[in-house]
Structure formats: C-alpha cells, structure tokens
C-alpha cells in the first residue's frame, strides 16, 4: 500500500507523463479512500490546467493585455491556494 507521500509524488508525475497501469490503479484506489490526497490531486489538476491555458494564451497573443492571467484563472488559483492552506 502506497503512503500519502508516494501518492502526491505520483500525482505530480502523472501530470508530466502517463504512469504505468499498476501505479495508476494504486493511485486511483488511494484517492478514493483518502480525502487529503484526493484534494491534492484535484488542486494539482486545476493549477496545471490554469497554467497551461495561460501559457497557451501568452504564446499566441503576447502583445495583448489579456495575455496575462484571466480573472477566472486568478480566482481558481486563489481558491485552490486557500483550500490548501486550510
Ligand atoms: Zn493519502
């Protein structure tokens, strides 16, 4: 059985590359049982998505004012950070 520390590492890794099936299943099982890790995984995905959207927008249209973080992305990140601190 993997521990929370292993899970958070694997969750971060899974954002960069596809994990082997066995590890994916172990992570998924842990996330179903562990609220802390499930919250961490959710936030990691949110932040990852916000960062990705932002970098895509910047790459396409760096001269426009909207190239900075959108209001929506800002709120999402703020909310995620708040949750994490709680
Ligand atoms: Zn856990």
Computed CA radius of gyration, to the nearest angstrom: 15 Å
The molecules bound to the chains, other than polymers, are: zinc ion
The total count of strands amounts to 0
The largest β sheet comes out as: none
Low-confidence stretches: none
Helix content: over 70%
Mean pLDDT across residues: 86
Distance between the termini: 27 Å
Percent range for β-strand residues: under 5%
Outline, from the CA principal axes?
A: flat
SSE run: HHHH
How many distinct folded domains? 1
Summing up helix and strand content along with how strands pair, one would put the structural category as mainly alpha
Alpha plus pi helix count = 4
Describe this structure in words.
The protein has 86 residues and is mainly α. The protein has one domain. It has four helices and no strands. Helix 2 (21-33) crosses helix 3. The radius of gyration is 15 Å and the shape is flat. It starts with a helix and ends with a helix. The structure holds zinc ion. Zinc ion is lined by residues 4, 7, 30, 34, 36-37.
Main attributes of the structure:
single chain; about 90 residues; mainly alpha; flat; binds zinc ion
Record the SSE blueprint.
Blueprint: H1 4-16, H2 21-33, H3 35-60, H4 71-85
The protein binds zinc ion.
Question: Can you describe this structure in just a few lines?
Answer:
By secondary structure, this protein is mainly α. The protein has helices spanning 4-16, 21-33, 35-60, 71-85. It has one domain (4-85).
